[in-house]
């Protein structure tokens, strides 16, 4: 551990109150251009610009991808969660605003972008989403107004790095290196003990 | 050979910047920024590796096997930030734009291999400048306390900015381009930096005349290599 980490923080008085503008965002990643956005995780950010940047730096580096899609957590509406696949439906219509539909193919699976429906409200969007994309094979449908979805794409600003990233992964931490580190740490501990022992007795 | 010297200067800047910023891992002001800053610190280390490879030889040996006076990083990159986020952010902002200026020129050089490497690195460098521009704006306009901290950071660091251009080829032209990149961001954030021009006469890190803070950082960074020169990861 770096010696610089041994700094003890001192605060003068209480920390300022939060501004309350932090929002919870849902993040999806696209593995290839034209491919569906797949749920990746969550993050917190005060606005869409920072949220997009964090989505790239956080989830965009988990695996090769060409884009991230985000929306505020409170912008989504999910259908009822149940054990069985949603029953086929026949809700039709193209009035209203465009909604992005995500489907979950089984309980515990991730939500994956399925397509668009037009609807005047979330409830109708879910009904039309089930009719268009569920097909009796998905357990949950999520809808988000397309206007509330924001995307970062590789061609605008790099997401997945082109250079060798292998050094980042723990698999490079071989047994040999671990053994050497332990030797180094043990030697440092022994030196510390010796110094303390000498100080204590002399 | 000015080009090789400039590449070495930038590579060493990147190496030490990545090393310094890595100290923030786990200590960032918010989790998301901690992750983002750590990813960019890793990018800096990777960029150093890419440039060391172009210079030739074993990148690990170049990064960790030299005597202190052989490093060509400027004093600014190893100046202790004392875990002051404003200092760290202001420094990253200024260094990222400096790196962009040099990489743009490397991408226009006569060396095809360097052109290819610089073009790739420029894409990733844009991530840093975009991210840091956004943070400078937010902190500069984020209230009196945040603005005061940022201005203090720039005031603290401004004496070291000239060192960025020490020994750098075409320093005056590159300094102008650097200012053209940082000034609009600073102005939008109501911040200013008191630097009048590149200090070509400065004799500091780029000349191998390093301050004590570099020696300490380099000693820590090369600790494992010194213990086990052939360690493989």
Distance between the termini of chain A: 30 Å
> The biggest beta sheet of chain B, please?
none
Rounded Rg of chain A: 25 Å
The CATH class label of chain B is Mainly Alpha
Number of strands of chain A: 8
Number of helices of chain B: 10
What is the count of distinct domains of chain A?
Answer: 2
Describe the structure.
- The complex is a heterodimer of chains A (202) and B (233).
- With 202 residues, chain A is of the alpha+beta class.
- Chain A has 3 helices and 8 strands.
- A 4-stranded antiparallel sheet of chain A has the order 2-1-3-8, with helices on one face. Chain A has a 4-stranded antiparallel sheet with strand order 4-7-5-6, covered by helices on one side.
- In chain A, strand 5 and strand 6 (111-119) form a beta hairpin.
- The longest helix of chain A is centred in the last third of the chain and has 27 residues, at 175-201.
- Chain A starts with 22 loop residues before the first strand and ends with a helix.
- By secondary structure, chain B is mainly alpha-helical.
- Chain B has helices spanning 2-22, 31-55, 59-64, 75-78, 85-106, 112-140, 144-161, 171-188, 212-221, 223-227.
- In chain B, helix 1 (2-22) packs antiparallel against helix 5, helix 5 crosses helix 7 and helix 6 runs parallel beside helix 8.
- The two termini of chain B are 33 Å apart.
- The chains are: A alpha+beta (202), B mainly alpha (233).
- The interface between A and B is large, with 35 and 38 residues.
Topology:
The complex is a heterodimer of chains A (202) and B (233).
Chain A (H helix, E strand, L loop, with lengths): L22 E8 L6 E9 L2 H11 L8 E6 L3 E3 L18 E8 L6 E9 L2 H13 L5 E6 L4 E4 L21 H27 L1
Antiparallel strand pairs in A: 1-2, 1-3, 3-8, 4-7, 5-6, 5-7
Chain B lengths: L1 H21 L8 H25 L3 H6 L10 H4 L6 H22 L5 H29 L3 H18 L9 H18 L23 H10 L1 H5 L6
């Amino acid at each position: 551990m770096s010696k610089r980490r041994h700094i003890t923080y001192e605060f003068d008085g209480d920390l300022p109150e939060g501004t309350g503008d932090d929002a919870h965002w849902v993040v999806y990643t696209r593995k290839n251009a034209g491919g569906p956005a797949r749920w990746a995780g969550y993050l917190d950010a005060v606005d869409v610009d920072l949220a997009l940047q964090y989505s790239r730096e956080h989830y965009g580096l988990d695996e090769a991808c060409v884009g991230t899609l985000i929306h505020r957590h409170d912008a989504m509406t999910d259908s009822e969660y149940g054990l069985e696949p949603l029953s086929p439906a026949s809700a039709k219509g193209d009035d209203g605003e465009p909604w992005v539909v995500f489907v979950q193919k089984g309980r515990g699976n991730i939500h994956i972008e399925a397509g668009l429906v037009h609807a005047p409200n979330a409830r109708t969007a879910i009904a039309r989403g089930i009719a268009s994309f569920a097909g009796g094979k998905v357990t949950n449908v999520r809808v988000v107004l397309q206007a509330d979805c924001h995307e970062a794409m590789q061609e605008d600003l790099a997401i997945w790095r082109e250079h060798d990233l292998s050094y980042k992964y723990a698999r490079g931490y071989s047994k040999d290196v671990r053994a050497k580190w332990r030797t180094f740490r043990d030697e440092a501990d022994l030196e510390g003990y010796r110094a303390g022992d000498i100080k204590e007795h002399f | 050979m000015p080009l090789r010297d400039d590449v070495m200067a930038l590579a060493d800047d990147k190496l030490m910047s990545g090393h310094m910023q890595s100290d923030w891992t786990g200590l960032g002001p918010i989790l998301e920024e901690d992750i983002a800053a750590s990813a960019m610190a890793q990018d800096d280390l990777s960029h150093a590796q890419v440039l060391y490879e172009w210079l030739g030889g074993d990148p690990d040996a170049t990064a960790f096997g030299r005597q202190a006076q052989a490093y060509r990083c400027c004093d600014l990159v190893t100046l202790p930030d004392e875990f002051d986020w404003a200092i760290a952010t202001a420094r990253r902002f200024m260094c990222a734009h400096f790196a962009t200026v040099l990489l743009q020129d490397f991408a226009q050089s006569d060396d095809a291999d360097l052109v290819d490497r610089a073009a790739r690195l420029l894409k990733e460098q844009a991530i840093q400048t975009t991210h840091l521009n956004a943070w400078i704006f937010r902190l500069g306009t984020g209230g009196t306390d945040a603005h005061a901290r940022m201005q203090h950071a720039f005031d603290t660091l401004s004496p070291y900015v000239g060192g960025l251009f020490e020994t750098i080829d075409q320093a005056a032209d590159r300094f102008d381009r650097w200012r053209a990149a940082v000034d609009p961001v600073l102005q939008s954030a109501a911040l200013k930096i008191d630097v009048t021009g590149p200090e070509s006469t400065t004799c500091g890190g780029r000349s191998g005349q390093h301050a004590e803070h570099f020696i300490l950082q380099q000693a820590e960074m090369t600790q494992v290599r010194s213990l086990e020169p052939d360690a493989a990861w």
